[in-house]
Design a protein that fits this description.
GO molecular function, one term: peptidase activity
Radius of gyration: 19 Å
Shape: globular
Structural class: mainly alpha
Strand content: under 5%
InterPro entries: EmrE (IPR032713)
Largest sheet: 2 strands, antiparallel
Mean pLDDT: 83
Number of helices: 13
Order of helices and strands: HHHHHHEEHHHHHHH
Protein name: 42.1 kDa protein in intracellular alkaline protease 3'region
Pfam families: EmrE
Helix content: over 70%
Oligomer: single chain
Keywords: Hydrolase, Membrane, Protease, Transmembrane, Transmembrane helix
Low-confidence stretches: 318-322
Strand order of the largest sheet: 1-2
Length: about 325
């Protein structure tokens, strides 16, 4: 249960992304700066944390071993994840972005065959290709049904173009984030902890963010002071707190695709936290009856997903003992 709890805490801090990004957009800030400033600010903050823990040098040693893999998968996991999310915030409210983002629950499960999981046998550990966790996937569909209900009463207020610009970038992000995260777990092979891995991916993705910043200067001008401050808050809450918690949770279950999918499913709580944040910070209306029913489905789906994952692990352990 510990990875699930860490995942829920990560979802709480990730929710700040959707609320603050929408707030910056409503104040006239460019999505380009909302995206790039988060990681530019994150880099020195994370470095100081890892340096204070006495293991910053190991990060650069690992990057030096496989610089191209670090650059590619960090750009996928951070760049192609966060830039589309910020772009989508320019065309829809935070609740819609957070709701659509839950597609990552399905995305992570569908990518299982692209990776190998470690299975302990009498002859020792064996690497086998991951399988789509269909039972867990069914629980994830319950979560998505709840998300759909939550958004149902709001979706009619948006134009088709705004809906398209919200949905398509978030779908791209939903595949990029788990793909980049899992690939970097393979590259690191347990040699780095969550703080080190987040720092390494942030540093390796900086070329992408610096190029995007240059584009921002040419097209939107420099960012305002308010956007810099709010981007700094996103960097701390979402970029550092949420990402480190989530990566720590996924590290605990690496090699076990059903449990990994269950941890990734905890991000469905972002919808609940984002909705509450919009009510509190942006004075959005309270969820109606339909949305409340969706919230209930999300919680039920989360509980069932965790139950199926833990039950399968218990059965696997009994088989191995026999």
């Amino acid at each position: 249960m510990r990875p699930i709890i860490l995942g829920i805490f990560a979802a709480f801090f990730f929710a700040f992304t959707f609320v603050l990004n929408r707030g910056m957009e409503l104040e006239g800030g460019s999505w380009i700066w909302s995206a790039s400033l988060r990681f530019i600010i994150m880099a020195p903050l994370l470095f100081m944390i890892v340096w204070a823990r006495g293991n910053a040098g190991r990060v650069f040693q690992e990057i030096k071993k496989a610089p191209y893999a670090w650059f590619i998968w960090s750009t996928v996991g951070f760049g192609l994840f966060y830039a589309p999310l910020c772009f989508a915030a320019a065309f829809g409210p935070g609740w819609l972005i957070a709701g659509t983002w839950q597609i990552t629950i399905i995305s992570g499960s569908l990518m299982a065959p692209l990776f190998y999981e470690t299975v302990q046998t009498q002859a020792g550990p064996v690497q086998i290709r991951g399988k789509i966790p269909y039972k867990g996937l069914m629980m994830s569909l319950i979560i998505l049904a709840g998300v759909a209900l939550m958004q149902l009463e709001h979706a009619a207020q948006l134009s088709f173009q705004d809906m398209l610009y919200c949905v398509v970038p978030v779908i791209i992000a939903s595949f990029a984030y788990p793909l980049g995260n899992r690939k970097m777990m393979e590259v690191c092979a347990g040699r780095l902890d969550a703080y080190q891995r987040v720092l390494g991916m942030t540093i390796a993705s900086l070329p992408f963010w610096l190029i995007l910043s240059l584009y921002g200067v040419m097209t939107a001008g420099p960012p305002g002071g308010g956007q810099v401050i709010q981007s700094g808050l996103v960097a701390v809450f979402s970029g550092i707190c949420a990402t480190v918690l989530f990566f720590a949770a996924t590290d605990m279950v690496k090699g076990d695709m059903p449990k990994l999918a269950a941890v990734e499913a905890t991000q469905s709580f972002e919808v609940l936290f984002a909705a509450a944040g919009e009510v509190w910070i942006l004075s959005s209306p309270l969820p109606g009856a339909v949305s409340s029913a969706g919230i209930a489905l999300v919680i039920i789906g989360m509980v069932l997903n965790s139950y199926v994952s833990n039950k399968k692990e218990a059965v696997k352990n009994e088989v191995l003992k026999a």
